[in-house]
Amino acid sequence: MPLPIAYRSARDLAALVRRGRISSVALLDLYLERLARHNPKLNAIVVRDVERARRRARAADRAAARGERWGPLHGVPMTIKESFDVAGLPSTWGIPALANNVAAANAVVVERLLAAGAVIFGKTNVPLLLSDWQSFNAVYGTTNNPWDVTRVPGGSSGGSAAALAAGLTALEYGSDIGASIRNPAHYCGVYGHKPTFDIVPLRGHALPGRLPKMDIAVAGPLARSAADLELALKVTAGPDVIEAAGLKLALPPCRRARLRDFRVAVMVDHPTAEVDRAVQDRIAAVARFAARRGAKVSDRARPAIDPHEAHRVYVMLLRAETSSALDDAAFARQLEAARTLPPDTEQYHRWLVEANTMRHRDWLAFNEERHRMRLAWADFFREWDVLLCPTATTAAFRHDQRGERWERMIEVNGKPQPTTTQLFWAGFPNMAYLPSTVAPAGLTPERLPVGVQIVGPQYGDLTTIGFAKLLERELGGFVPPPGYE
After folding, report:
1. Which of 193, 167, 199, 163 shows the shortest CA–CA distance to 180?
2. Does the active-site annotation cover 469?
3. Of 81, 123, 194, 469, catalytic
4. pLDDT value at position 212?
């Protein structure tokens, strides 16, 4: 049975507009009506740009009537993560001091989406500084998960995933340095793709006054179908203006046409970040399905890397990068904290303080380790096409906005675990610049979504998305949450 039109893929909607089966204005009005009906209990879309979007939708319809095609997203209404600059709209990153920070120009990603024909009608919620696996801040408030509003939608692209799951938008674009695309996709039951590092320009996705590229951070799409991930990636990937003078991106196509052709490694758990049994079961079920379809599947194949050491290297490089947001006073406090850390300091908190204040010589040593691991991953992917693993240690947890992130606990197999421990599954591929796609993998016994993380070799983006497309076709894909008909 086909999905209602609000849940149809962006690719399908663009085809309907192009053929005159529905107008871009009608689609926009449909999403605006759903936004008015459902967004009050979700708070997913926090900035609206209705009049400008309606003018663009009318122009898209006039162009379609003339036989013109702006691009593969012609006339498709979509939203984008609040942290991307859209000219004339606020970019606050959830920081109250930036509540009046209005962008003067579009981010590169926004320009490329518009060039592909998209109609951007709003922006979606984020956590403060994009630094949480929840999405709440003092500017816009708290975003809820459509599957259970008492639970988080993930972060930092939490509003993105919630809006998609509830059918409030056709397509979304987010960013990811610590699973900020993958984690919300997993929690809300949609698709998300974290691209290979640096293939999608981040210019226009930065705090005011910041220009340099961020280590590890990427921009990438979220969608309700794997094919939409591929479409959105293709229209946004490619070097920025300076690099384009001498570089051209040519992602290799997925070489496997059937699940039986894939060589699949599986890793459902690790002692560094124990995974809840309900999540493990869904990842294992996907692996068993691939094996039944004839894929070569191994639950023992691993890159020649110490996973716990990879976790430490990731957190140190991650927090060294994000330390650039500290002002002088905050940095001074971190220096004092580093000097006085008690010996029983929680592991993540210790690493955070040490990374915030590390010497460049220390950073170079961690970077050296990172590149040794990149080579080990490259060797691994000569034998295996993809690695399946969790995105997080649990399904969506209940809202918890108390204290610091490393002080907040979630229950994993009946035991408390700091929420920050889940960074293990974020960083295992991310620190090494690898692409990974999250695809819906079914529901837990509590009827909460689980996503499988599909990791591939550097520049193997179309392979991980290709595997997700095959799962979608043969196993099933996005399922709308109840109550958003």
Report:
1. 193
2. no
3. 81
4. 66
